[in-house]
Amino acid sequence: MNANKQNFGRVALIGIGLIGSSLARIIKRDGLADHIVVSARTEDSLNKALELGIADSVTLETAEAVKDADIVVICTPMGAYKSIIEAAAPALKKGAIVTDVGSVKGSALNDLGPHIPEGVHLIPAHPVAGTEHSGPEAGFAELFEDRWCILTPPPGADEGAIKTITDLWQATGANIEIMDAGHHDLVMAMTSHIPHLIAYTIVGTATDLENSLRDEVIKFSAGGFRDFTRIAASDPSMWRDVFLNNREAVLEMLQRFNEDLTAMQRAIRWGEADTLYELFERTREIRRGVIDAKQA
Amino acid sequence: MNANKQNFGRVALIGIGLIGSSLARIIKRDGLADHIVVSARTEDSLNKALELGIADSVTLETAEAVKDADIVVICTPMGAYKSIIEAAAPALKKGAIVTDVGSVKGSALNDLGPHIPEGVHLIPAHPVAGTEHSGPEAGFAELFEDRWCILTPPPGADEGAIKTITDLWQATGANIEIMDAGHHDLVMAMTSHIPHLIAYTIVGTATDLENSLRDEVIKFSAGGFRDFTRIAASDPSMWRDVFLNNREAVLEMLQRFNEDLTAMQRAIRWGEADTLYELFERTREIRRGVIDAKQA
């Protein structure tokens, strides 16, 4: 083993979709763990994990998966967190770290925190990366490179545990940011949740069109619509849970968006050319910012 | 010259942005014209066209550009159409074909039609392709490959002229569709104009956030927002004119979108998990359609 290489011991992945399987690929590729145990809801997912060579062992039982694990990474839709931690808690070993990859961190703390046993550490995390594909086969080892991974440790969290989860995500190529959970959820409402909600909605609007018109919308989608269809192909269970768990922040940002859209609607109705031009010019600067931040 | 190769004679390009310069590159690369004359609003654009080697001659005067031209392609924002055709009309030669590349076809017919002299043909066209970049340097010869180019000839248009413009766009690698102008505008409202309007609006909403939050929105844009910033970096003049010229269809589709977004908002507020899941599942099918139609 490379002297510089870290070893995270026994890692349990609960859920093996896009994010979980990408993380597993990296751990396998770089030999970062002694053993990867994968737990999932279906035999099918477990078999795929074995076929892909990204699990050393598999089990349908959460408690069995987390037994003896040094790090437990919950990679399921957020609606499953409560039942997972209830099943896992009695089996967690002293000194273990529980983390997750969910897109909402306030609810992760609320759902997991009360069930974490004495001597076990909770360090929620959110790798800000993804594609529209889901399932174990969709993962790839480069998914997190140069992306951000945000940790939201609860107040007073163990420094050693924070360092371990930082090291784990740095090993994937991600950059680490530590943030308050509530602030994270507000930022993500704007950068991720509202864009997804809007994309889902407009693609839904298109599916409700008269049949002939709908076929043409697909045919001529290269004019902008196809980018929305890509976003709106993301995992339905995951996104349902995001919106249910980040309700307040999403509704707040949605309200702002709605006001702005109404203003645009009015500008179009009344032919206010300058209002339109001024906004369209202003938004270019944000794009430059995204490019400068190397997130384009 | 290759025996199979077509020659479109003398081609005048009025405007040399992303679309015009891409078309010029193809005509040059494949030797499809005897001469390309480029007209633009600024010396700067004309100099760039010469530097890029995509113009044989340049002029600031529309009338001079269209004189003796066999095909005149208007590639400017649509707000300039009326003044361009007024300047061009007296100089157009008998048998010339006037076409354009604008995103709204009803207004193209309305703005250009009344000024077309007897014996000159008007065949409006819309290549459904683009990027967020603009200007003469932004063009590239592959832009139209496997994309659609929609022709909206007015009733009774000359068949020979339709064939010539069909041939021109087929030579770019585009597939041709002939459509009624009003129907085109309705389809594009949904596939292109509303997606752009929404992207501009949400990026605008983000620019209005408190400074610290705005910086973070840029930093963590990989969660979905960056796709919107790309769309919202498109040419402001062009898009202002699209919304002003396709007002009725845009407002109609926007109304439908608004109703659907309000329904989603309500589902989030009341925690209606099934409503959210059902929509998110349904929109995946549209994505499959886009992929099957090879427009992904």
Question: What are the defining features of this structure?
Answer:
3-stranded mixed beta sheet; globular; homodimer; 6-phosphogluconate dehydrogenase C-terminal fold; 6-stranded parallel beta sheet; alpha/beta; 296 residues
Q: What features would you describe in this structure?
A:
2 copies of one chain form a homodimer. With 296 residues, the first copy, chain A, is of the alpha/beta class. Chain A folds into 2 domains: 10-179, NAD(P)-binding Rossmann-like Domain (Rossmann fold, 3-Layer(aba) Sandwich), CATH 3.40.50.720; 183-292, 6-phosphogluconate dehydrogenase C-terminal like domain (6-phosphogluconate dehydrogenase C-terminal fold). Chain A is 50% helix and 12% strand. Chain A contains 12 helices and 9 strands. Chain A has helices at residues 18-29, 43-51, 62-66, 81-88, 106-112, 159-170, 181-207, 211-219, 225-231, 236-245, 247-269, 273-292; strands at 10-14, 35-39, 57-59, 71-74, 97-100, 121-122, 125-128, 148-151, 175-178. In chain A, strands 3-2-1-4-5-6 form a 6-stranded parallel sheet. A 3-stranded mixed sheet of chain A has the order 7-8-9, covered by helices on one side. The longest helix of chain A has 27 residues, at 181-207. Chain A is globular. The mean pLDDT of chain A is 94. At the A-B interface, α7, α8, α9, α10 and α11 of A face α7, α8, α9, α10 and α11 of B.
